[in-house]
Amino acid sequence: MLDLVRPLVRWVLALALLCSVPARGAEDAIADEPSPPIQNQDTPRNVAYSFIMLAREGAWDDAALLLQWPQGMDDPEATPEKVARALKLLLDERIWLDFNAIPGEEANDDGAPVSLGTIMEGEDELGIDLVRGADGDWVVAATTVEGVPAMAKSMGVWWITSLPEFLVDVSVAEIELWQWIGLLLIAAAVMVLGWCASLVLHHSARLVDRGGLGMLRESIAVLAAPIGVLASLLAMRMAQDWLALSVPAKANLAVGSKAVLVLAVAWGVARWLRVLTLSIEAKLVARGIDDAGAIVRVVRVLAMAIVYLLGLSIALQALGMDLGAVIAGLGIGTAAIALASQQTLANLFGGASVIADRVLHPGDTCSINGTIATVERIGLRSTTLRTVDRTQLVVANGDLAQSRVEKLSTRDGFRFSAVIGVRYETTGDAMRRILAALRARLEGDALVDPASVRVNFMAFGASSLDIDLKAVVQTTDAAIYRAAVERINLDIMDIVQSNGSGFAFPSQTVYLARDRG
User: Fold this and answer.
1) Long-range contacts: 303-311, Cβ < 8 Å, 24+?
2) How wide is the angle at C-alpha 368 spanned by C-alphas 366 and 369, nearest 5°?
3) What average pLDDT does this structure show over 258-262?
4) Taking the model in full, what pTM does it have?
5) Average pLDDT of 249-269?
6) Terminus of the chain with fewer CB atoms < 10 Å: N or C?
């Protein structure tokens, strides 16, 4: 459970910090505004500003003095302080005041009431009006004050006026303390539910692990916390209306949530990359690539660092920070490093392709560009082989990926091929007997595939009658194949000799003649 609480506390604190950063363009907008009004009741602008500032400071008694209390207010729960709190809640949720748009000195010329807007809730309607009192000071109109409790109850925010003052007066990023507590409780509840769901899925995957779901089980375990954070962010955004967040609080929460969303995704991707690389490392070691562990660990660290850096940069951009120059510099540096190490990278990618395609395994006998050798070790940069002359051959994986590789250890048999020449003195009948006996000998051999036997009188050679023999010896053991060939050759000699012929050898007949002279 502590593993669940620690990340929750960390990301909520990070969310509070991120929400305190002004949204993009907010500083420019503030710089363009004129000087704020002063706190007095001389103008409608000043009284509206005074009410908001006193409410933010928690001075509800002083804020209540800016209300024109109606005659015959018969609601016992509607004290001036509660009405002032309720009015602040209504303004925060429905009308975010633009002080520059509220009339100033010019409103004193005719003294007509000034409307700050209208709040609608179903069929209920409440106008927020300012009027000038008998003493010349501007106040919130009695008609507005009288309708505030009913509208607050209709909107479901009246109960907030009964909260202790410290829960309302303390705020961070325009979000009050009680609202932060509500957001935290909602996030914690969603995290606990997600944690329970991940346990059920993890246990289910373990039960069927024999079906090859080990990777799925580990992915569920590492992605549970990031997914819980994402679900918590969604729940917080959905609960912002219930928590009566003000317009700027919603904007700050949206900006902070976007940044935390990016960081949570980066966190989940990095955790999943760790599981993936650990699985790859275990498979490489099982295949005999012993030095793969250190290389995969380096790749894992680099990949996770890149993911975290990208997530951090995107999160900072979501907060309005311009990182274009930094990203451009990193891109140029990455390109320079890639150009400087292109041969090394080619070997690494070549090794990855050899491993991924499973072309070779330790112990395989193969022919690489005409050289027969046995694979001893496959690394990510090079492959080591042992030749038939017992020398060690090291081939860069980049070259190996481009080479013609013939795997001899996966053959399903050996091809027997021979051309024998018998003497020209051999008669036709003798040749027929020799061909029939050779066919019978090859087809009757236990190791020879009968369908592959080919025995043919092929040509009249320069000094012999040529017989071509073809067959497939069904064995993958070279020693057994050589012994079988030895037996076949001895029997061929016996067959030729027993049929009244013999093997021819290159010879030349010279005729000598004497000229008459």
Assistant:
1) 303/270, 303/273, 303/277, 304/270, 304/273, 304/274, 307/266, 307/269, 307/270, 307/273, 308/266, 308/270, 310/266, 311/262, 311/263, 311/265, 311/266, 311/267, 311/269
2) 145
3) 85
4) 0.49
5) 82
6) C
